[in-house]
Write a structure and sequence with these properties.
By secondary structure, the protein is an alpha+beta fold. The chain is 33% helix and 25% strand. Strands 1, 2, 3, 4, 5, 6, 7 and 8 form an 8-stranded antiparallel β-sheet that branches.
Length: 249
């Protein structure tokens, strides 16, 4: 059964690529058996101030038989900064990578756009099934590729796309590429059966991914400025990259 998604109150005021990708993500998610994933009540919708500008954060979270948490975050700071963040954490019984994508738009220009299917290991090895499907996609070329941060190099795959789109055509290319990654991921997930005998291994991989993502100082600094260090830590570890239960010894 599909779950209807709530209408965003800020999406219509964000950069077109942000709103288009948010709509595209939710449309593909409808192929899954969605149910709500409950966040702390005070963290679903957040308002604050950052350097005199109003900050609004909207979070949508779901779960399915294959995914323990599917999170879509939209944020807007004043009239000049729009952010999309999305991550899909598989349930620890499933051999599935972690889908993630982000867009940052400043003053109407996309400054960063990233998408990946991350195996969440130090080696970053995807299964042959994913490698085969991703390799068949049309090769995307962008005029301004970006360098991954050091913490990201340990978790992102060889198919990670991190760019600064410079034209409307490149923006649409990134949109299509992200939707292709997500569609492959959802269709593959629907064919998978749980593998409880490898639960401990998959848990360890996912915890490593989350700990690496928590090193993103740029995100943390923005949250600390808008709120405080304690609130930023709680948001980073509760909403953005919560650690699943530790594997049994």
């Amino acid at each position: 059964m599909s779950l209807s998604v709530a209408t965003s109150t800020i999406r219509q005021h964000q950069h077109p690529l942000v709103s288009q990708l948010a709509d595209g993500i939710e449309a593909i998610w409808q192929q899954l058996d969605l149910s709500p994933y409950y966040l702390p009540e005070d963290l679903g919708y957040v308002e604050g101030k950052l350097e005199g500008e109003k900050l609004v954060i909207e979070n949508r979270c779901y779960q399915t038989p294959q995914f323990r948490k599917m999170h879509l975050e939209l944020a807007k700071i004043g009239k000049n900064l729009d952010i999309l963040h999305c991550v899909m954490f598989p349930r620890p019984d499933y051999e599935l990578p972690i889908f993630g994508c982000d867009i940052v738009s400043g003053r109407g220009q996309i400054s960063a756009a990233i998408v990946d299917l991350s195996a969440a290991t130090t080696e970053g090895n995807l299964t042959s099934e994913y490698i085969s499907q991703l390799s068949q996609l049309t090769q995307s070329n962008y005029s301004l590729p970006r360098e991954l941060p050091e913490w990201g190099k340990r978790i992102f795959s060889e198919f990670c796309c991190f760019v600064k789109p410079t034209t409307p055509a490149e923006e649409q290319q990134f949109l299509a590429q992200t939707q292709a990654y997500l569609d492959i991921h959802v269709q593959t997930a629907l064919t998978k059966a749980p593998m409880p005998e490898r639960r401990s291994e998959f848990l360890s991989r996912q915890r490593y991914y989350c700990k690496q993502q928590q090193q993103n100082d740029k995100t943390r600094r923005v949250l600390e400025k808008a709120f405080d260090a304690q609130w930023a830590e709680r948001y980073m570890t509760t909403v953005l990259f919560d650690l699943p239960e530790a594997p049994e010894a």
